Amino acid sequence: xxxxxxxxxxxxxxxxxxxxxxxxxxxxxxxxxxxxxxxxxxxxxxxxxxxxxxxxxxxxxxxxxxxxxxxxxxxxxxxxxxxxxxxxxxxxxxxxxxxxxxxxxxxxxxxxxxxxxxxxxxxxxxxxxxxxxxxxxxxxxxxxxxxxxxxxxxxxxxxxxxxxxxxxxxxxxxxxxxxxxxxxxxxxxxxxxxxxxxxxxxxxxxxxxxxxxxxxxxxxxxxxxxxxxxxxxxxxxxxxxxxxxxxxxxxxxxxxxxxxxxxxxxxxxxxxxxxxxxxxxxxxxxxxxxxxxxxxxxxxxxxxxxxxxxxxxxxxxxxxxxxxxxxxxxxxxxxxxxxxxxxxxxxxxx
Length: 350
What we know:
The chain is elongated, with a radius of gyration of 30 Å. By secondary structure, it is of the alpha/beta class. It starts with a strand and ends in a 21-residue tail after the last helix. β8 (about 175-180), α8 and β9 (about 210-215) form a beta-alpha-beta unit. It has helices spanning about 30-45, 55-60, 75-85, 90-100, 115-120, 135-145, 160-170, 195-205, 220-230, 255-275, 285-290, 325-330; strands at about 5, 10, 15-25, 45-50, 105-110, 125-130, 150, 175-180, 210-215, 235-240, 295, 310-315. The strands form 3 sheets. Strands 5-4-3-10-9-8-7-6 form an 8-stranded parallel β-sheet. The protein has 2 domains: about 5-275, Alpha-Beta Barrel (TIM Barrel); about 280-350, Antifreeze-like/N-acetylneuraminic acid synthase C-terminal domain (Type Iii Antifreeze Protein Isoform Hplc 12).
């Protein structure tokens, strides 16, 4: 089933659901995490999402880096995750409480079975990271919670996505959204492949499609806006208070100013998008009337004259007979004198 809302917040084309992926950009500071929540709520995001893991359950000590080591120099996944895994159950409980106080939804991606269970009390929706799309024990555990699931699809084939959806459905989850994602940190703009969004919509027509963005936030987060235009109804991007901080996920994240600017641009674009059908807008009514043309006399025409083609031309305004009826008017007789350049109306004709 399509995901039409999260915790009562409607998801539609005009109002995409915006998730700020705080991850572990709090750097292990609860005060920083609180500040991130407060700023995210003030900026207008619907949800802030963290990441819940312990290095020992996430990565082998022999796991190499897969990110740009010029941006994040740590060459071991285990070592990087170990730097940022000091939050436990009590910290996430406090973060969820702070979100509730500030009026923004809380979520955190569980990377193991413990956190999948513990976080259930606090979250209206689960997020599954791209790298866990084939982690079927975790998928089954989460799906049995029977809550909506956001499934990132980075570095996966359609067959893997299809199998993950089957596993999730069989385990009991009824609503899933697929987030197109490129598992490359940061993602070069030319690798974003935003055409994948309408492709996923065509392959999985009964599933909500979104975008999890790892592109640099340059150009006012244009990648987010472009993804929405291509059909993404849920938008997720990494989030930080300071993009200049070294390492981790700061370098490809939005800051609160970016969030406000993006929301403003998206609303502006949504207003421009308007309706899907072709209509004459209220603002076009005067233009329709006065910028279109009418049949106009090319010379003085006495009453009783039979109109010929040479006696008429088309000029503005469009308050008389439309030139669309030119062939019908030719051969008609005029009932009264018509002056040169006068607009011809149906009342003038017999």
